[in-house]
Design a protein that fits this description.
It comes from Candidatus Spechtbacteria bacterium SB0662_bin_43. This is RHS repeat protein. This protein has no helices and nine strands. Strands 1-2-3-4-5-6-7-8-9 form a nine-stranded antiparallel sheet, with no helix packed on it. Helices cover 0% and strands 57% of the residues. It has 109 residues and is mainly beta. The protein is flat, with a radius of gyration of 16 Å. The chain has one domain: Alpha-Beta Complex (Outer Surface Protein A, domain 3). The protein starts with 6 loop residues before the first strand and ends with a strand.
């Protein structure tokens, strides 16, 4: 597709009180999905080229003290979850096996 560019669309999800902003790759596959609350960016989802979710990042809102990131295998299986305190200091990292079971936990104190 010569000259193709990523394109974007926005949608308001009234039941969640957030706006959703989507970014698509050339050819139309979903690349990113951003969710915004009335306060700030709430979370981002990044997608593999095959359409499965690659990573989610959750951002701290005024009422929360933690943020987290989830990383996924190309088949959609959760691979790793990292949690952070509001100042960005790591709290814990959880690794999962191919079946979704916890394989290892690293906690930071």
């Amino acid at each position: 597709m010569k000259g193709a560019t990523m394109f974007e669309k926005e949608e308001i999800l009234l039941e969640l009180m957030v706006n959703r902003h989507e970014v698509f790759r050339p050819g139309g596959t979903l690349a990113e999905r951003h969710y915004y609350s009335t306060y700030a960016l709430s979370w981002i989802e990044l997608y593999h080229a095959n359409g499965t979710i690659a990573k989610t990042e959750f951002y701290r809102l005024p009422c929360h003290t933690l943020s987290s990131q989830n990383f996924y295998q190309p088949d959609g299986t959760l691979m790793m979850r990292c949690t952070y305190y509001s100042d960005g200091t790591p709290r814990q990292t959880i690794f999962y096996d191919r079946h979704g079971f916890i394989k290892k936990v690293i906690a930071f104190y």
